Amino acid sequence: MDQESIAHCFAALRAAIPEPRTELHYASPFQLLVAVVLSAQSTDKTVNLCTANLFTAAPDAQGLWDLGEEKIREFIRHLGLFNTKARNVHALAGIVLHEYHGEVPRDRQALESLPGVGRKTANVILNTIFAEPTIAVDTHIFRVANRIGIASGKTPRAVEDKLLQVVPPEYLLDAHHLLILHGRYTCTARKPQCRACPLQSCCTWPDKNLG
Fold first, then answer.
1. Is 120 in the active site?
2. Which residue among the candidates 60, 85, 120, 174 is catalytic per the annotation?
3. b/e for 75-102, b at 16 or more Cβ within 10 A?
């Protein structure tokens, strides 16, 4: 896909999604960090149900550290991998509390050194909290970028690197949320809503569901 078509795609996405933002509920950078860690292999809806009670009981790093791994596990038991996530969240809270005075670090290396935090989670935090033009390539963005033809790649990192090269600068800050929301509700894995898709004219996918 050429740059003119890519710009057209993102203009159409912005028109369709004028306020792109995460669907995870949070009241602070630390809460978003925890929510993103918990979202691995879980839906945002399920995470929000769990964190509504978790963040009431423990709204910050001090609270989660004091709560302890066992009680954290009780709050998130409906999530996939809840045992590992409880362990990571408790350890993460301790590090943020004792090494960063309760504040989420802005540095990528520091973020990725936290338990349960990889490149994708770090990108979400850097983009959503610190307004850095990063793109966290999850399954939705990986599918959309390859399917539409914006950025083809065999790995999430390859797609991320390509997106950072081709997304017009004026859309870089919102690209992550524009693409993920488009993939979640329109360009779905099964039965994509091609007939109602705002990108129908610029999408290069040969198997459009237009019936």
1. yes
2. 120
3. bbeebeebeebbbbbbebbebbbeebee
